[in-house]
Amino acid sequence: MPDRLIVFDIGNVLLRFDTRIAARNFDRHDPGKGTALSSALWSYPLMHRFETGKIAGRDLFDRLRKRFDLKMTYPIFRKSFTGIFDPIRENLSLFRKFTQERKVALLSNVNEIHWAYILRRYPVLRRAQVRCASCELGVMKPDPRAYRYVAERSGATLRKMVYVDDREEFIRAARRLGVTAIHFTGKRPLKKLFDDVGIN
């Protein structure tokens, strides 16, 4: 079915990430503050505001610098914050294959710092014809508008979408809209999961 739109989440589908790495990175520059700083970064509502583009990266850093009396500079903060990703090579290979044969999109809850970094660090991701980041859309999954944005930008219908994510709540939200959704947990190869829905 070549007319299906294949939509990939990024975190823990194409790239693993570990917030504990950020804490260790921060600690190298501001000893003893890494865990608290990392916890604050990924707390709600701060991360929600950051990942929906309501606050810019530099403004976020300035707030955290004052709150935690940080000595690190913004470039050091950014480098420490982005050094948390590791490619899932077999899934990236499958992603690359699909971009050569089908229309492919990305849909990710992601902040502006990570978004710029991963597109630069992993250029294969730029092969997706449609790239939707929450920091640019202004909404995050599981908000139905996030899935509808992908459909609108790609020219596909929701029922023509095949969407893969590691988060069960995001899968349920997609299915409620009529999207064929694949829950990737790492227990089975992603290729096998696509085979199950007739995508190979």
Mean pLDDT: 96
Major sheet characteristics = 5 strands, parallel
Round the Cα radius of gyration to an integer and report it: 18 Å
What does the oligomeric state look like here?
single chain
CATH topology of the largest domain: Rossmann fold
The CATH class name of the largest domain reads: Alpha Beta
> What would you give as the CATH superfamily of the largest domain?
HAD superfamily/HAD-like
Strand order of the main beta sheet, please?
Answer: 5-4-1-6-7
Which percent band covers the strand fraction? 5-15%
Number of helices: 11
The domain tally reads 2
Please report the distance between the alpha carbons of the first and last residues. 9 Å
Q: How many β-strands, per DSSP?
A: 7
- Counting helices, strands and paired strands, the structural category is alpha/beta
Using the alpha-carbon principal axes, give the shape.
elongated
CATH architecture of the largest domain: 3-Layer(aba) Sandwich
Q: Stretches where pLDDT falls below 50 for ≥5 residues?
A: none
Fraction of residues in H or I helices = 40-55%
Task: Describe the secondary structure blueprint for this structure.
Blueprint lengths: L4 E4 L6 E3 L1 H11 L4 H8 L4 H6 L5 H12 L5 H9 L2 E3 L1 H13 L1 E6 L3 H10 L8 E4 H4 L6 H11 L6 E5 L2 H9 L3 E4 L6 H7 L4
Parallel strand pairs: 1-4, 1-6, 4-5, 6-7
Antiparallel strand pairs: 2-3
Helix pairs in contact: 1-2, 1-5
Q: Which features does this protein show?
A:
200 residues; alpha/beta; Rossmann fold; DNA polymerase, domain 1; 2 domains; five-stranded parallel β-sheet; 11 helices; 50% helix; elongated
